[in-house]
Specification:
This protein has a domain of 199 residues: Rossmann fold. The protein is of the alpha/beta class. The two termini are 19 Å apart. It is 40% helix and 18% strand. Strand 6 and strand 7 form a beta hairpin. The protein has a seven-stranded parallel β-sheet with strand order 5-2-1-9-10-13-14, sandwiched between helices. Strands 7-6-8 form a three-stranded antiparallel β-sheet. The chain is built from 13 helices and 14 strands. It binds guanosine-5'-diphosphate and calcium ion. The site of guanosine-5'-diphosphate has 25 residues, from helix 1 and helix 2.
Amino acid sequence: MRFTVIGGGVGCARFVRGLREHVRRTGGEDRIDVVVNTADDWWVSGLRIAPDHDSLLYALAGVNDAERGWGRAGETERVSAELAAWGTAPEWFTLGDLDLGTHIARTAWLRAGLTVSEVYRRLGSRWDLGVTMHPATDSEIDTHVILADGDPIHFQEWWVHHRAALPATGFVQRGIERAVPSDGALEAISGADVILIAPSNPVVSVGPVLAVPEMREALAVADAPIVGVSGIISGAVVRGMADACLATIGVETSAEAVAEHYGARASGGLLDGWLVDEADAGAVEPLERIGIRTRAVPLWMRDADTSARLAGDAVALALAPR
Ligand code: GDP
Ligand code: CA
C-alpha cells in the first residue's frame, strides 16, 4: 500500500508521525510519501528558509524540540545574536544555530544548481525518516499577504512579526502561475493507493499546494481516494493561528466549513472523505449530504498512540467500500 500525504508544518508532522507509527504497527510494508508546502519558504540573511519542510524533517528524525513545538532540540542562538548585531536578520525571526546549519546547507546546494527536490533528497538522507518528502513545486512561490491598508508584505512578516493581527484581505503566491508540480509530487499522487490531506492550515499550508497549476488536475484524475483530517475542533484551531487565515478568506473556523471550502470530489472539489472530531459529530450529516463521506473520531494527536489511531481511522475511511 502506498500513502501520500499533502500538507506542511507542525500539524502535518504530527499526522505523518502517526501514519508512520500506524504503518509500523500493521506490518511495516506500506510506503509513505509527503507532498510538502513550499509557499512559506523565504530568504533571510541570504539563506533560503523552508519552515514547513524543516518542521517535518526534524520531527520525523526525532531531533525536534517537542516542548517548544518547533525547531531543533538543544538549540542555541549564538549566530542569531551576531546577525542582529550586524542588523542583517529581522530580530523577530529566530534562527537557531543548528537550524542555521540546515539553511546554509540548503542554500549552498541551491546555489550550486540543485533543484528543491534534490535538496529535499539530500537533507532527508541524513536520517532514516521512513518517509519520502517532495516539494509541491521546485519554483519559488513565496506567499505575500495583501493588507487591508498598505502594500503586500511577506507572509512570514505578517505571521511571525505581526502574529497574524494586521487586517488582511487575501494571500498571493508570487509567481505561482508559472509554477509546475515537482516530478516527485506528481508521481506520489498518481502512484498512491490512498491520498491524505493532513490537518494542516487549510489556507497557507494546504491551499498553496492545491493552487500550483496542474496539481488540482493531478488530484482529480488520481485513482486513490482522497481523505482529509480537520485541523479545527469545536470551532477552534488546536494550535497556531489558522483561524486568522480562514477569516481572511471568508471561511468560518469550523470543521464543516473547511470541508465545504475543500469541496466534494464528486462535484469538482477535493475530498472523497473527511474526518471531524467527535465533538463535531453534527457536521457528519450535512457533509454527507453534499457528497463527502464523513466520520467523527478523536482528532487530538496527544502522543504516538492517539496519532497512530487517527492515521488508521483516515486510512480506514479511504479504503471503506463505497
Ligand atoms: P504550521 O505550518 O507549523 O502552522 O503547521 P500546519 O499547517 O501543518 O498545522 C497547523 C494546523 O495543525 C493547525 O490548524 C492546528 O489546528 C492543527 N493541529 C495541530 N495539532 C493537531 C492535533 O493534535 N489534531 C488536529 N486535528 N489538528 C492539529
Ligand atoms: Ca505552514
